[in-house]
Structure formats: C-alpha cells, structure tokens
C-alpha cells in the first residue's frame, strides 16, 4: 500500500477551511467539497441562486480534476449538500445533470443540511478513479 498523496491545485479556489483540494490513494482520488466561490477572487460575492451556484461548484471541481489530469469521466461517486433541500433540489438536479451524459452518471447521494460555509446554497464533493 502506498502512502496517500495530498494535492493542492494552484488554479483551484482558495480553501474556505484547512483541507487539501484532493487526496489520492491506491488509484482513488477524493475531491474535497467545493463551494461556489470564484477561483480568481475569493472575496467576490457568491453567485445568486442555486443554478448559478451549482454551475460554479461543478466548474470548480473540474478545475481540481484538470489539475490532477482527470475529468468528469473519471468520477464514480458524488455527494451534494443543499441548505434548502425541498426548494432547490429540482433546480440543482437540472444543472448538475447537464455536466454528465445520461448513460454515464456517477452514483450520487444528495443531503439536506442546515448550513454551509460562506452561506452557500450548495456544496458538492466527488470520488474519482484513475484509469
């Protein structure tokens, strides 16, 4: 068994807490949940609405994946967290689904939570597998 590798991606958003962008072990890559923060300016306000926040979160995750020379096609599992579950679930799903082809969607769990960092409406984390 090899030791885990802890990744910080230079182009990815500034972490909102003490964590690595991803940790890799035995071909699995665990991506930390991303927030809808601007990767170029963490001080900017979050996008308005769950659709825009979901797009920003997914785009931030893609930045992390690219920094690891991976893509969404390598993602095998996703967890999504929503602060307004009943209100935002359908809209988040529609935006999220646009990132994956219908025949190649990762396993996923969606969880309602009471709050997220920075007052975000959505956070998403991923598990990817190296080919």
List keywords for this structure.
six-stranded mixed beta sheet, 2 helices, alpha+beta, 60s Ribosomal Protein L30, Chain: A, single chain, 131 residues, 27% strand
Description:
The protein is α+β, with helices and mostly antiparallel strands and 131 residues long. The chain has a single domain, classed as RutC-like (60s Ribosomal Protein L30, Chain: A), CATH 3.30.1330. The protein is built from 2 helices and 6 strands. Strands 1-2-3-6-4-5 form a 6-stranded mixed sheet. The longest helix has 19 residues, at 49-67. The two termini are 18 Å apart.
List the SSEs and their pairings:
Elements: E1 5-7, E2 22-25, E3 28-34, H1 49-67, E4 75-82, H2 85-97, E5 107-112, E6 122-129
Parallel strand pairs: 4-5
Antiparallel strand pairs: 1-2, 2-3, 3-6, 4-6
């Amino acid at each position: 068994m090899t030791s885990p590798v802890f990744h910080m991606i230079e182009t990815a958003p500034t972490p909102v807490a003490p964590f690595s962008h991803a940790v890799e072990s035995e071909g699995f890559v665990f991506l930390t949940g991303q927030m809808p923060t601007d990767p170029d300016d963490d001080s900017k306000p979050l996008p308005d609405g769950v659709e825009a926040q979901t797009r920003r979160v997914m785009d931030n995750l893609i930045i992390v994946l690219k920094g690891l020379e991976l893509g969404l096609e390598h993602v095998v599992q996703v967890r999504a967290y929503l602060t307004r579950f009943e209100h935002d679930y359908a809209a988040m799903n529609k935006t999220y689904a646009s990132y994956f082809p219908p025949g190649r969607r990762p396993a996923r769990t969606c969880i309602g939570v009471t709050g997220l960092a920075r007052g975000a409406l959505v956070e998403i984390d991923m598990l990817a597998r190296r080919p």
